[in-house]
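Ticket reopened. Same input as before:
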Amino acid sequence: MSDVVEHLTGLIRDRIAAVRARDVEALAEQFAEDVVIFDAVGRLRDQGRGAEVSRLETWFGSYQDDLGLGIRDIEIVAGDGVAFGHYLFRVTGTMVDGTEVSMWLRATVGFREFEDGWRIVHEHSSVPFDGATGEVLVGLEP
Amino acid sequence: MSDVVEHLTGLIRDRIAAVRARDVEALAEQFAEDVVIFDAVGRLRDQGRGAEVSRLETWFGSYQDDLGLGIRDIEIVAGDGVAFGHYLFRVTGTMVDGTEVSMWLRATVGFREFEDGWRIVHEHSSVPFDGATGEVLVGLEP
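Engineering reply: fixed in the latest deploy. New output:
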C-alpha cells in the first residue's frame, strides 16, 4: 500500500514542474476522461478532461512567464483501486495586468486505478472566504 | 460494493436533518477523531473532531431558526475500506443580522472504514471566487 501512496504523492508533486513548464498535456494526462472538477474560480462544477484543458489554458494565459507552484502537507489515503489525497498549494506569479499574486489554496483529489494506471477522477481546489464580508481570503498563510 | 455506496450516500443525506435540528452531536459523530477540514470560510485548514464541533457551533450560532440544507449530485467512489464522495449543497436561512442567505457550495468528503464503521477523515467545502474581482460567487446555481 505504501507503494501506492508514494506513487500518488509523486503524481501530485509532478504538477509543480508541469505548471512551471506550462505543460497542459502532461497535466491533462493525469485526469480521467470524465473527471469532475470543483475549481477555485468561476464555476461550481465542471466535468471532463476537455474542461480541465480549457481551465489550464485560461489559467496559464492569465499569467506572465513567472507562474510558479509550491505544494505542502500532502496526505494520501489509499485503498485497493480507490484513493484520495489533500494538500495545500501556493500560486505565485505576475498576472498579465501586472498584479503580483502569492496565494495559498487547498486541494483535494480523488483517484481511481484504471488498467493503464491511476488517474484523477475528481479535483476540488479552493480558497476560503470571510463569512462576514464575502471577500475571498487570498492572504492566508498555513 | 453498491451497499457501501448506498450506506455512504445515506450518511451524507443524514446531514440534512441533523443540520435542520442543529444536532452537533449527530454531525460530529460522522467524523474521525483526526479529521482534516478545509472549510468554506475563515481558515485554510483545521484538524480534529473538536475543530469540527466548534465550526458547527459557530455556523449554527450565526443563523436564525430557519437554517436549511439541500444536497444534490452526490457521487461516491468506494473501494475496500477507503472511499470518497462529492456533492453540491445549498445553505438557506436568515443570519442573526437579518441577511437572507441562499448559497450553493461544493463539498468533497474522504471516508475510511474503522472497526465501528465508516467515518469522514477529510472534508473540503467551498464556494468559487471571481478571479478578476476577488469576490466570492455566492449567486451561482448548478
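The mean pLDDT of chain A is 95. Chain A has one domain: 2-126. Please confirm and we'll close it.
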